């Protein structure tokens, strides 16, 4: 069902409901494919981030006030798109006491009410490592908890200066220890200057904290003001790294130059459930 009509329908729906998508704000290269299939990754908490990461195209600055009506409008959009798998992400909101976790939780519950058979994936910021904020999202019952480490340990301070590698691993560990545990997922970009041994070490760190699903994609420089691309990894390298990660123990890996965090997200969830021997919404 990949048609120009579906692209236009998603574009109009997002605009009519005054919603934001990471597809637009982060300049995702897969926007035409995903929107053409009638899907989009909905972005909560506005479109202005309190952080200014060197890789990210989302606007940084002083965010606007919270929109209390956003959760219900997101649920309405998901219902109108008839989504079977809903992916929610957000900007970082370090200006808020709970980092915006209450909006994540309210949105999850709104979607569950209107689309009880849909699965829900969240891609959250680190919430400053605050356990109460992470718990607030987990209590709402997402099927997938995704938080990206983005790059290897050595490059964190350059690429994610307001984040921390250990803090990100802590978020993923908290999600994996929740009962019942969602499928835990993370993502890494290639092309920022990392070495293959560093990538393998990152895979190992993710597995140690309970990460089951992994995305690997090529970093693309959004503007001249962002970190430069150090190299472009060929498709065969992505294929090989996918095989390595699977052999190490990940349940599912999406790996390719154009892969992003929510690409083929429902398929990865199915792979995690198959590994666990359970059904989605059993």
Keywords:
single chain, 282 residues, alpha/beta, TIM Barrel, eight-stranded mixed sheet, two-stranded parallel sheet, 11 helices, 40% helix, 15% strand, globular, disordered N terminus
Explain what you see.
The chain is of the alpha/beta class and 282 residues long. It has a single domain, classed as Alpha-Beta Barrel (TIM Barrel), CATH 3.20.20. The chain has 11 helices and 10 strands. The strands form 2 sheets. Strands 1-2-5-6-7-8-9-10 form an 8-stranded mixed beta sheet, with helices on both faces. α4 packs parallel to α5 and α5 packs parallel to α6. Mean pLDDT is 86; it is low at 1-5 and 22-39.
Ordered list of secondary-structure elements with their pairings:
Blueprint: H1 4-16, E1 20-21, H2 22-25, H3 31-36, E2 42-44, E3 48-49, E4 59-60, H4 70-80, E5 85-90, H5 101-114, E6 119-123, H6 131-139, E7 144-146, H7 156-159, H8 165-176, E8 183-190, H9 196-208, E9 213-218, H10 235-248, E10 252-255, H11 265-276
Parallel strand pairs: 2-5, 3-4, 5-6, 6-7, 7-8, 8-9, 9-10
Antiparallel strand pairs: 1-2
Helix pairs in contact: 4-5, 5-6
